[in-house]
């Protein structure tokens, strides 16, 4: 945490360091409590700043988390493509397992995937949205190329697979983390057992079936 004597950055390097401190605080808070629960005031307090000072670096809380989502796309895409490239075979189920494993290993990214279209893209400048979309499209293109090489599916089919994987990962993560009181309710009543979601196995099953269906056509 930056102390109460926080000073405004005077150089480009100092500004970059402050921005990274803000992003790191937002990542930690988001991972601990969930994106929906984090306010701009929370982030400012975590880095020892007043909210008005933080606004010199980012437009809104949504811009902060949208930038973190952008980073998440780059990191996930890099690991996904690396692991797909190392597969000993191109079995559709194996590809689905890699998608499921790499997404489930990134709970913060899954949370962000759900929040981005709901609110993160809605309270930022057009340029912020444009920058986010361009990075996302670039990473989607990388993954599409790997899917087409491995499975021989069409470009539109590969895009559909990625959209299904990311949107479902975001939705399943929300279902899997309803809060401690609701989780206790689900586990205490056998009739509600179906509401207890384990993200990776379900994502694995759905994506494996989808990919098998596409390659069997």
Automatic annotation (TrEMBL):
<keyword id="KW-0238">DNA-binding</keyword>
<feature type="domain" description="HTH tetR-type">
    <location>
        <begin position="16"/>
        <end position="76"/>
    </location>
</feature>
<protein>
    <submittedName>
        <fullName>TetR/AcrR family transcriptional regulator</fullName>
    </submittedName>
</protein>
<dbReference type="GO" id="GO:0003700">
    <property type="term" value="F:DNA-binding transcription factor activity"/>
</dbReference>
<dbReference type="InterPro" id="IPR009057">
    <property type="entry name" value="Homeodomain-like_sf"/>
</dbReference>
<dbReference type="Pfam" id="PF17929">
    <property type="entry name" value="TetR_C_34"/>
</dbReference>
<dbReference type="GO" id="GO:0000976">
    <property type="term" value="F:transcription cis-regulatory region binding"/>
</dbReference>
<dbReference type="InterPro" id="IPR001647">
    <property type="entry name" value="HTH_TetR"/>
</dbReference>
<feature type="DNA-binding region" description="H-T-H motif">
    <location>
        <begin position="39"/>
        <end position="58"/>
    </location>
</feature>
<dbReference type="Pfam" id="PF00440">
    <property type="entry name" value="TetR_N"/>
</dbReference>
<dbReference type="InterPro" id="IPR041483">
    <property type="entry name" value="TetR_C_34"/>
</dbReference>
<dbReference type="InterPro" id="IPR050109">
    <property type="entry name" value="HTH-type_TetR-like_transc_reg"/>
</dbReference>
């Amino acid at each position: 945490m930056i102390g109460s004597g926080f000073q405004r950055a005077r150089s480009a390097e100092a500004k970059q360091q402050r921005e990274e401190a803000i992003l790191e605080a937002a990542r930690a808070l988001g991972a601990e409590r969930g994106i929906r629960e984090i306010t701009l005031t929370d982030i400012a307090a975590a880095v020892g700043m007043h909210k008005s000072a933080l606004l010199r670096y980012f437009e809104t809380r949504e811009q902060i988390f949208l930038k973190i989502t952008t980073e998440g796309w780059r990191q996930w895409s890099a690991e996904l493509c690396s692991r797909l490239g190392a597969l000993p075979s191109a079995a559709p189920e194996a590809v689905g397992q890699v998608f499921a494993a790499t997404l489930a290993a990134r709970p913060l990214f899954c949370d962000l995937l759900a929040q981005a279209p709901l609110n993160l893209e809605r309270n930022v400048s057009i340029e912020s949205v444009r920058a986010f979309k361009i990075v996302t499209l670039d990473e989607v293109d990388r993954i599409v190329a790997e899917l087409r090489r491995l499975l021989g599916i069409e470009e539109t089919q590969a895009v559909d697979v990625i959209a299904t994987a990311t949107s479902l990962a975001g939705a399943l993560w929300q279902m899997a983390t309803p809060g401690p009181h609701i989780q206790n309710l689900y586990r205490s009543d056998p009739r509600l057992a179906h509401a207890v979601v384990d993200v990776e196995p379900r994502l694995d099953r759905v994506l494996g079936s989808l990919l098998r269906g596409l390659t069997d056509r």
